[in-house]
Amino acid sequence: MLIDRLREFFESITHDDEANFKTDKNDPQVAAAALFHHLIEADGVAVDSEKQRLKEILSSEFDISVDEAILLYRAGQAADKDAVDLYSFTSVLKVKLNEQQKIDLVEILWDLAYADGHRHELEDHVIWRISDLLGVSSRERVLARQRIEAEHK
Question: Contact at 8 Å (CB) between 100 and 76?
């Protein structure tokens, strides 16, 4: 009872902070953040190294401050939680990104998959699904994985 009310209070504060950032799932940054978040949650365990790497990627890729990256992370997390599928995010990005940018996004996904030191078969599946929805070929997906694997060795 009291614990539930406290939890609701803290959640309401978090949601208020998210309102300061664009939380529209049709925003390409939020769509990408949601996909990234979905990936790190794919194996059922989002460890701190994955969360930290995701925030670093958001900050560097979108050229935003660390504080803005945290807000974008939260917006992506909320969008992912509310989504019923990945299509709602990939459809936004498919229109906005050129072919090379789509491949770059897949590389970022692989980088996140290796952020905890190993990749999980569920992460492989999520990346395959996102790549397919973006129109990135199997060949390009595998080449992207190989490039990132080489960096993580």
Answer: no
